[in-house]
Design a protein that fits this description.
The complex is a heterodimer of chains A (294) and B (92). Chain A has 294 residues and is α/β, with parallel strands linked by helices. Chain A has two domains: 230 residues, Phosphoenolpyruvate-binding domains (TIM Barrel, Alpha-Beta Barrel), CATH 3.20.20.60; 51 residues, no CATH class. Helix content of chain A is 45%, strand content 16%. In chain A, the strands form two sheets. In chain A, strands 1-2-3-4-5-6-7-8 form an eight-stranded parallel beta barrel, surrounded by four helices. In chain A, strands 9-10 form a two-stranded antiparallel sheet. In chain A, helix 2 links the parallel strand 2 and strand 3. In chain A, helix 2 packs parallel to helix 3 and helix 11 packs across helix 12. The longest helix of chain B is centred in the middle third of the chain and has 18 residues. In chain B, 33% of the residues are buried. In chain B, helix 1 links the parallel strand 3 and strand 4. With 92 residues, chain B is α+β, with helices and mostly antiparallel strands. The chains are: A alpha/beta (294), B alpha+beta (92). At the A-B interface, helix 1 and helix 2 of A face helix 2 of B.
Amino acid sequence: MKRCRSMLFMPGNNPGMLASAQSLGADCVIFDMEDAVAQTEKDAARILIRHALTYMRPQGVGVAVRINALDTAFWKEDIAAVVRGGADFVLAPKTNGPDYVRELMAGLEAAEAEHGVKDARIVVFALVESALGIENAFAIASAHKRLGGMLLGAEDLTAELGARRSAGGDEIFHARSRILMACRAAGIRAIDTPFPFVTDLEALAADAAFAAQLGFDGKAAISPHHIVTINAAFSPSPEQINWAGRVMAVARRAAGEGKGVASLDGMMIDLPVIKRAERILAMCDGPVEDFHAN
Amino acid sequence: MSGIKTAIAGTLESNDIMITVSPSRQEGKNTIAVESIVMRQFGPAIIAAIEDSLTQFEVGFVHIDARDRGALECTIKARMEAALLRYKELPS
């Protein structure tokens, strides 16, 4: 499984930013056609992103494109540009239910058919950022086989709730938990919301560490300055890697001896522990070509 | 306020190029004016990219005013495409 620890939003109509996408350290970049682009510049951003995907595609970095929402006049042309340019992911904003996902998938498949794309390699991530979306989390997560993950968008959500956004994030604990449960139940990736206080790197570290502790696969970012901290939070420590390697060695030995259960340092090593060890080792790295595996 | 049909795409920010399309100033041919911070090194390449786009998106004979701030070739072509498509959509 390719790591997706950090997903960095980049304004889609800024060629300098798009050109720097490869060098910012994020596992994945999100070229944004939505909030970061003025209404009058949607066409120019769409064209620029298509050219960027075609001619200066970042190497060794996953590339997502956030299209405009399905209640706008832009999204079908956005999808067509993504298909022609060939991104790894489409990020679908304002996803509020399974019908929304299915409508998007139909649009994606229509664009692929129109442009002769047969491999269906683009994976869709749903950006869930409303109370209705949170309530429908599992229905969204399981709506379509091409949905590869969900990302929590806490700014729109807390604005809708009337909640005050804080560095501690108490106000989004329930939403985070719902997204995570839904993703795990559906077997897709769970990506945490960006941290909105751009200059408070200490609070960012605590926020990212908490998201990692909950079980998220990664975290979105709105500033390149957040990437190092986020990558560190979602990377296993040397102690964890060492422990996981020892667990796997003990498990292999036990399996060779026909035993279902073994022990390490006084701890029982059974299937849940082995799965946790496997996940830690998978987080160390993964082949680039396997980016699309869930 | 001028009534000349004009379309613009791009910005004057670093790594970008601002393209302005207007009717040609010479009958029967396209005209191009480029101002660039890297004119001496890349002037011919910038003009070639602009001419490629003019060939690809036929909009009649136009004048292109390009103010370059170090744009890559794909950025030049993207801004040309946006400006020419906007120009096409304008009423005559």
